[in-house]
Amino acid sequence: MASDPIERDVETLIDLQLRKLGWEDNPKSPNRNVWKQQPRTDQEKISLDGLKPDYILYDSHKLEPIIVIEAKRPNKDVYTALVQGLEYAKKINAHIVIATNGILVKAIHLKTGNYLTLNGESVDAFFDEQIALKFVENSDVETISRKAINSRNDLIKIFKDSNNLLRKEGLLAGHERFSVFSNILFLKLMSEIQDLKDIEGERNVIPKEYRWDFFKNKKGNELLSYEVILTF
Fold this sequence. Notes:
This protein has 232 residues and is an alpha/beta fold.
């Protein structure tokens, strides 16, 4: 008979996720920014007055506490852990509290009292230090540029307009229109990926004349001729 899950099982999962995200919990590492069951400094120990947060995550450069994490076993209420974490965070001036029972993850911002949102979505998973530092001042963080969001909206509009045009041109079967949309999306994504590689100085794989921004404004026979070139 399997035993009931314990809090330590949840902590093991947290350890794995934090390491995967680049947090360092090795006590011998000079880059350590994760402390478990105790804070980093004696002053923080005094402030906590014997209390022991499950995890405290620090700014690697300033060595200031950023996040308090509280873990509970899966059959425990995650909101109870959140309240407990808030008590700890206030004592050491941490900015964020994350609570998890291994199933749910809830994250709250001390300064605003709001739950964290990342790119418009509620945070339901752990995140790396770079994003954590963005959350220090605000509970709402955007890592996708406004230009990228606009381009998605533009692309959706193109799909809608193209869908109507293709239907008028006789492509009545949905799979035919879907095939055309897939080709457009593939070209758009590959072009964006290559543009990012250009910025990072990586090798040019897709010539500029085959990228979205080069041919997106072509029309009529010019676009039709260019489509033939892309096909080959």
